[in-house]
Specification:
- This protein is of the alpha+beta class and 309 residues long.
- Strands 1, 2, 3, 4, 5, 6, 7, 8, 9, 12, 13 and 14 form a 12-stranded mixed β-sheet that branches.
- A hairpin with a 4-residue loop joins strand 10 and strand 11.
- Helix 1 runs antiparallel to helix 2.
- The longest helix is centred in the N-terminal third of the chain and has 16 residues.
- The two termini are 17 Å apart.
């Protein structure tokens, strides 16, 4: 049974392609999505592999027992997986804020009541007290809730892509935006302007509209491979990839159980609290998630929010 938990927030600094393989749709390589809601996700298996690699890289810089500790946290390599399970269990990284082009203010960070209610549920599961309520907004409404300091309103409307919504200033939107600003965005100095922009560009959309934007307003990049002799596109080497756009915010609950490795106590990892402390003390900064690493994609800035217990 899980004994400790934390919430990992992932802020996309570049487009992120966590792919699901080939597709018969207009996009050759789509991103991973939930089956029921069709909202974008990064599957837990992908996130766990990335975390394992980064934790190992950091520990190996000054810890001779780095590999043993990694195996306690994430389990042995595949050929020895039968020996014991790892104690760290990341869940899928789910969407919290999605950037959408705006007529004024450049872009808006959008969310919806369903996403916020689900985040509240998962935050409670890890021990985070959000302290705010989600405003009621019908799924097929033409309204959008914004903060009192909003800078994305034009003539009483919030205009995202080619769609217009009636802007309604809402106290609960202020509370949510300010909490997200303080608890989810990266804490480093270079993110201070982004934290200050969030309440001014925050919008809560109806569920249906938000879902549609996450399907139609992702970033689609066309890529090619050249024939080195002719410097033309090689046969069959033209394809399109879907990406989560830069400035997207994701979250992933991380649950930790009592370490099961036989040598855990010798490594000072005898409890779930010890394992969580090790993760927190690493001060994880940036991860590379998904494909296209060699062309600079998939970079996310991370923040591990550990509830006080």
């Amino acid at each position: 049974m899980f004994e400790r938990a934390a919430m990992l927030f992932l802020y996309c600094e570049t487009p992120v392609h966590a792919g699901m393989g080939t597709s018969l749709s207009v996009v050759d390589l789509p991103i991973q999505r939930e089956r029921i809601t069709n909202l974008p996700i990064v599957q837990a298996s992908s996130l766990k592999g990335v975390l394992r690699a980064e934790v190992k890289r950091i520990l190996e810089q000054n810890d001779p027992k780095a590999n043993d500790k990694v195996q306690v946290l994430f389990g042995p390599e595949t050929q020895r997986a039968h020996e014991h399970a790892g104690c760290v269990s990341p869940h899928d990284a789910r969407l919290l804020l999605f950037p959408i082009r705006s007529l004024v203010g450049v872009f808006a960070w959008a969310t919806c009541p369903f996403v916020l209610e689900r985040f509240k549920r998962e935050a409670k599961a890890v021990g985070l007290d959000v302290g705010w309520d989600v405003p009621s907004l019908p799924a097929n409404s033409q309204q959008a809730f914004v903060t009192k300091s909003s800078e994305i309103i034009a003539d009483g409307k919030v205009i995202l892509e080619e769609f217009a919504f009636d802007a309604q200033k809402n106290d609960k939107a202020d509370q949510i935006a300010n909490w997200l600003k303080e608890k989810t965005f990266p804490e480093s100095d270079e993110y201070e302007p982004f934290r200050n922009w969030l309440p001014k560009r925050f919008v809560i959309l109806p569920d249906d509209a938000f879902r549609d934007f996450t399907q139609m307003a992702t970033e689609v990049i066309t890529r090619i491979r050249l024939n080195q002799e002719t410097k033309t596109v090689a046969k069959g080497a033209l394809w399109s990839e879907e990406h989560l756009p830069s400035e997207t915010l994701l979250y992933a609950p991380i649950f930790i159980s009592k370490p099961l490795a036989p040598n855990a106590s010798q490594l000072n990892l005898s409890s779930a609290g010890d394992a969580l402390k090790l993760l927190a003390d690493l001060n994880l900064d940036r991860l590379q998630i998904g494909g296209d690493e060699t062309v600079g994609r998939g970079i996310v800035k991370v923040r591990l929010n550990v509830p006080t217990s």
